[in-house]
Amino acid sequence: MLVSPEQERALGLNAYENILQKEKASQDQVLNQMLQTVGWRIANAARRPDFDWEFTLVENDKVANAFCLPGGKVFVYTGILKYTEDETGLATVIGHEIAHAMARHGAERMSLTLLAQLGETAMQTAIRTQSASAIRVFDYAYGLAANVGVMLPYSRTQEYEADHIGLILMAKAGYDPRAALGFWERLSKGKSASSSPAFLSTHPTDYDRIAKIKNLLPEALEYYIN
Known about the structure:
Blueprint: H1 5-22, H2 29-46, E1 54-58, E2 66-69, E3 73-77, H3 81-84, H4 87-102, H5 105-118, H6 120-129, H7 132-141, H8 156-172, H9 180-191, H10 207-221
Parallel strand pairs: 1-3
Antiparallel strand pairs: 2-3
């Protein structure tokens, strides 16, 4: 981990401002209220007062994606709502993405990539100055690249860790973690469609993953109060 939390958040804030300028925020009051309700319940369960939480719904039904930038800036695209279906499904997505940010998985990917490309000394300079190469690798690491095919995939270890943390977060927030299975199964079916959800480019969904989630449920249910 060669990127400090402060450097990571500085790059995240720059990305956040750029995304707000490029993307169209949804004006749907019902969907926005749902996002704020679910988002803040998960955020409160995360207990990260150092995160400056904000939840933005992007109006784009053709993009099924969501991500959390360092420091708590969460974006959800309307295209993923057909897979979430309800608040609990959305809690699965937000919990999972916040878990990636809490575990600093993007910083891990960014560190490995920049180290391989530049070496440690040049890497630190690139991050400190927010050079074009650092910003480009940040975008790839956090799934922000325009070309889905060049996004850096999370490792299976990172994915399972995010599943684990995400299930506990949604359970602590009062959402039944068993509902996560339905979301991942629906998303898995979308994988076979002609237009695979962008969410899947960095989130491999398969029977092995779903089986592991089933194994994690007993622990997550200990935090769930219906």
